[in-house]
Amino acid sequence: MTPADAHAVDTPQLLEQARAWLAQDPDPETRAELQSLIVAAEAGSAVAVEDLHARFDTRLEFGTAGLRGAIAAGPNRMNRVLVAQAAAGFARWLLEHAAGTQPSVVIGYDGRKNSDVFARDTAELMAGAGVRAVLLPRLLPTPVLAFAVRHLDVSAGVMVTASHNPPNDNGYKVYLGGENHGSQIVSPTDAQIEAHILEVAKGDIGDLPRSEQFEIASGDVEAAYIEATAAVASTAAPRDAVSFAYTAMHGVGWRTAEAVFERAGFSKPVVVAEQRDPDPAFPTVAFPNPEEPGAMDLSFATGRAGGVDLIIANDPDADRLAVAIPDGSTDGFRRLSGNEVGALLGWRAAELAERTSTAGAAFGTLACSIVSSPALAAVAAAYRLDFADTLTGFKWVSRAPGLIFGFEEALGYLVNPATVRDKDGISAATAFLDLANELAASGRTIADHLDAFAERFGYFASDQISLRVTDLSRIGEIMAALRATPPSRLGDVAVDHIDDLRDGFGALPPSDVLRIVLADGSRVMVRPSGTEPKLKIYIDASSDQGDIAERRATATARVAALADAMRALTA
What we know:
Layout: H1 3-8, H2 11-24, H3 28-42, H4 46-56, E1 67-70, H5 80-96, E2 104-109, H6 115-129, E3 132-135, H7 142-151, E4 156-160, E5 169-176, E6 183-184, H8 189-200, E7 215-216, H9 220-230, E8 244-247, H10 253-264, E9 270-271, H11 297-306, E10 310-314, E11 321-326, E12 333-335, H12 338-356, E13 365-369, H13 375-382, E14 386-390, H14 394-397, E15 403-408, E16 412-414, H15 425-441, H16 446-457, E17 459-468, H17 473-484, E18 489-490, E19 493-500, E20 514-518, E21 523-528, E22 534-543, H18 548-570
Parallel strand pairs: 2-3, 2-4, 3-7, 8-9, 8-10, 13-14, 13-15
Antiparallel strand pairs: 1-5, 4-5, 5-6, 10-11, 11-12, 15-16, 17-22, 18-19, 19-20, 20-21, 21-22
Helix pairs in contact: 2-3, 2-4, 3-4, 5-6, 5-8, 7-9, 9-10, 12-13, 12-15
């Protein structure tokens, strides 16, 4: 039986749902798109029916990462109807938990398609529901919104962004103030909000009360963020010794980052002009993520032309940081991995904690996600700091008790938890440039510092495999197969043990993750992506034997062998 035959019995109900959605959709573009699909389905188009099923058989679920999806009509896409339902549902949750006071929310948005529209809809619906709503005055980086939650002392924050997703995607991230200190939501809050959203979805968004009595935040919010972020630079040495190129990757980072860099006293960056200003089409990159192959080609070219010492890249909403250093290759630069940057920033945090401690010893917690390099744990042990490994996502990293620094390998770093409890690509860039300038004062480079790290803590090698799928069921099949028939060896190395986090593990909440620990201490982590149709495999190995070259060779060889074994196992 074909998919069309399987769906034939419920096509009338499907069309009824689609017409009901169409009737309440205020967006001319998605209305026209859905109307065209309905007409085609009524005329017997199997393709149109399948498309409607993809949009209406399920809906984007409001989880701990909020909402994220392609902009199009229907409950399984991002659009004004879905956002209105989410805003009204979240407003009801805020009112339910207000403890007799008026709840408040600050709303931010980036430069993606419809971000400003979704943000204004949210402000109007929040105000209409009786929530004090504050809309940021212009498109701004996600870290500014996370900062604003604490700076304005509001109950919650909403950021309209899809970060580094494909151009036609958008999303909806939620933060909580008060005792949550501006961190993203975690379970069970997501399920509670989702329940309210589903109740709202039973009605028509046209019946929801709206009000234009919301506030527009002053420029003082961004100014305070700029001041606090520039203060991350702490070196007493000259801060303009290092030259660097900067790209905003068609996002919203440049204007804010420029002000921070100037306030911190760094040299004026050479800007990748083609990627400086917000552009929702992201015309110069196939995928607006600095981790993706080719995404930093223009910044490499700019760096070569300018003869710079470093390249600094933010992703489109500026919550991630990528760094590249000269390497003498044809490209001229090598992008450091997230683990390399995280290790160096973690070492910097440990050093600062030791220098500033009145007790003469460092104190606080270094934290990273379970799929990030074990290098940070080695730093924590050397400085007698606490260490926490958390589930993936800064909603978890940011909540580590006593946190002084946190990171995850996907280019996310939290360097100033006293002001921002989320990953922040601009403050991380400030910390990294501060480190580079401090090294330059003694004639050293970032490459030298990486060698110093390997000499002191060991050489840590990492790799990642991303298996992108078109059928999401394939991810479940692979995870089920690994659980049903766990490997006893990977390549030539025996598996020591496998930790299944599905039902929780130690202090970690339940998560669909397998941690495979090898007899030589190497590690493989396997988990489905939370935001993309991918199965992600993370591989880590280290060596502290021999000189730096020998340590590098040993660790990288182990990682390469494990990568080959995992590709064969999941093929």
